[in-house]
Structures are given as structure tokens and as C-alpha cells.
Amino acid sequence: RPLKLVVTGGAGYVGSVCAARLVEAGHDVTVVDDLSTGHADAVPEGARFVEGDAAEVSQTLLADGFDGVLHFAAKSLVGESMQDPGKYWHGNVLTSLRLLDAMRAHGTPRLVFSSTAATYGEPDVAPIPESAPTQPTNTYGATKLAIDHAIGTYARAHGLAAVSLRYFNVAGAHGRFGERHTTETHLIPIVLQVATGERGQVQIYGEDYPTDDGTAVRDYIHVTDLADAHLLALDHARAGEHRIYNLGNGTGFSVRQVIEACREVTGHPIPAAVGGRRAGDPAVLVAASDRAREELGWKPERTDLRDIVADAWRFTQDRRGTAAS
Ligand code: UDP
């Protein structure tokens, strides 16, 4: 049955890919985005678009009777969250609480929330299961964890069917939907900017981590696989329950390995310089996603790092082609 859904943040990277997948699957999609970091032309064809703040718009919009909300709208820069925490407590926690209240007021039954591996902080286990202690090392992760806690209590008290998906490192692109941040902080798009000549070199943040080559290790997951988990989460959400699932491939790649994969894909030498560590960065973040596989039937299909990078590279080149023409 097609569902009538609100996608907050549907003009952003992960939100737009998910909105596109939902439209492809035949659902009725309304994107709400204030365009603070998203792009109006990233809203997929076939989705309605309401420009505005997720908390504000939901107060009236949800009165139309929706089956669920996928809540992507958020501030998501770790560095910025340390310098301007208020922006994250208000922009993430307060906005989400107001959205939860609007859902409750209008009887919206389902919620899928974008949580993050940053809720775990610096874990001493790898791979990380959902049962690992949550001790975020940055304000961004702390705000997402606070929202997860709030969702759990609303689900139990008010019968909301809720799922939090904890993303590891999302990368790649889905057709014309990909990563286009004005302030780019993520490793793969930065490295690809070196390949296009927009940037002279990539800075490696720390080579003194307790890993094989001394650089930090992350679990990179293709954005299409990530989006597909949201569709499964919608199907599996149950009234009164809040489920939490990690989404990653379960394989770690070091910063140096990522740069090497980008060299292979682009054929560019990609100069790299070693600098100091970035504040708040854990050494190793790799997901145990067994729970998503077992309970949601999720199976990531684009797990090869080179394929992930190749999709991001194709997207980068397409966009440059479009911008030049
Ligand atoms: N990183 C780096 N140079 C950069 C950007 C990132 O060495 O210009 C490293 C960063 O320290 C981390 C990894 O690459 O270990 C992935 O960082 P990203 O910001 O992409 O994702 P995060 O893991 O912070 O969510």
C-alpha cells in the first residue's frame, strides 16, 4: 500500500536520496526543507515541496493525515557543533521535540529518524553493536542521542511506531542525487575535489592512531543501501516500540585506504599531507549491523569501496558538466 509521508530535510544529501527511493517505490512524498543546507533542485520529481522549518511546517501540515514522517532535517557538522552548541541543541533537539508533539497532536503513527554512530563516541569495541555504551564525544552526537531518548519515551507512552537508524559514514550517490555541501568537511568529497583540481591536496587528520597505518578507520556505506534501510524500517515499525539499528557494511577503511581508492577510481595522483588530529574524532568506527540484517531483512549491495567512490566520482563529474554548460 502506498504511504503518505513527510520527509523533513528531503533537499539534503541523504534525505533527497531517500525521498527519491520512496517516490520510486510509489509512495506519496512531501518534502519539508528550509534550504539552510539543502538545495531546492535536489527534491525529486514527483514529490511535493514545502519550504520551511520542519517543526514549524509540521504543526499544520500533519493535520492532512500522514502515515509517517522520515526526519532527516538536522545540523550535522561535528566541528561546528563544538563551536556553536546552541545551534545544535535548538536546531536538532528542540526542532525534533516540536515535531514529535505535532505528530502526537495529529495522530501521525510512524517515525523514522536519522541517528548516527556519533552517539557511541569512542567505543572500546569494534565492530559496534547497538548495545554498546553511548558516550558521544561531540555535541552533534549528544543532540542525536538526546532525540533518540525522547523518541523512546514518546513511543512507549503514546504508542508511536519509531525507528532510529544510526548511520556510519555515508558516501556515494544515487543517480542525480549526491553530496553537495557548501562547507565540505567529509573525506570522500574532499578527496574528489583534489581530483577535479578544486583543491590542491588533502590533509590527513592524524597519523598517530592505533590502527594499521596510523590513520583513522571508518565504515563507509553507500547512500542507496542506506536509503533502502529506511523503506524497510517503515515496514517494520510497530506501535509502542522504538527500535534502533546500526547501518554500516561492517568493514573499516583507513583514511589512507580511502585516498588510495580515490586515486584508482580517478587516475589522479591526489597529493596528501599529514596534519594533526581533528577534535572529537574517534580512532575506529565500524558497525555491527546484524540487527538490521536479521530484523529488517536489510542487505547492503554496494559494499565495495571502489564502487562507492566511483558513484561519488560520477556524480561530481556530472555536476561539474552541468555547472559548466
Ligand atoms: N578526514 C581527513 N581529512 C579530511 C576530512 C576527513 O583525514 O579532510 C578523516 C577524519 O578525521 C575521519 C575520516 O576522514 O577520520 C572520515 O571523516 P568524515 O568527516 O568524512 O566523517 P566522520 O567520520 O567525521 O563522520
Q: How would you explain this protein's 3D organization?
A:
The chain is of the alpha/beta class and 325 residues long. Helix content is 40%, strand content 18%. The protein is built from 10 helices and 14 strands. The strands form 4 sheets. Strands 3-2-1-4-5-6-11 form a 7-stranded parallel sheet, with helices on both faces. Strands 12-9-14 form a 3-stranded mixed sheet. It is globular. The N and C termini lie far apart (41 Å). The structure holds uridine-5'-diphosphate (UDP). Uridine-5'-diphosphate (UDP) binds at residues 78, 169, 185-187, 190, 202-205, 216, 218, 255, 278, 281. Residues 78, 169, 185-187, 190, 202-205, 216, 218, 255, 278, 281 line the site of uridine-5'-diphosphate (UDP). Its EC number is 5.1.3.2. Belongs to the NAD(P)-dependent epimerase/dehydratase family. This is UDP-glucose 4-epimerase. InterPro entries: Epimerase_deHydtase, NAD(P)-bd_dom_sf, UDP_G4E. Its cofactor is NAD(+).
